[in-house]
Give the backbone structure.
Amino acid sequence: VQLQASGGGLVQAGYSLRLSCAASGGVFSYYGMGWFRQAPGKERECVAAISWTGVREYYTDSVKGRFTISRDDKKNTVSLQMNSLRPDDTAVYYCWRAGFWGQGTLVTVSS
C-alpha cells in the first residue's frame, strides 16, 4: 500500500488549505483512514480520522469546527479541509491507513 499526500504549503493565519491523500496498491474501502501531524519537538498526534463507512469521524479538540475529513472510495482518496488555520497548526501532516503511513506534507501557517 502506498499513500501519497499532497496539498501542504505556506499560508497566513485565517486562511485555508486542503490536503489530499491518494492510496494505491491495496484495498481502500474497508479501512478507516486518518490524518496525523507532527510539529517540531512534539509527538505525532491524530488530527482526524474517518471510519471505513465514512459515517464516523474523529477530531482532536484543537481542530474541531475548523477541519473536516472526507473520503472518496471511488477515487481511493481521503482529504482534510483545513479552515481558519492558526500558527499552532504548523506541522508535517501524514496520511494513515492501518499499518501504513504516507510521506508527509508540510503545512506552515504564518501569523
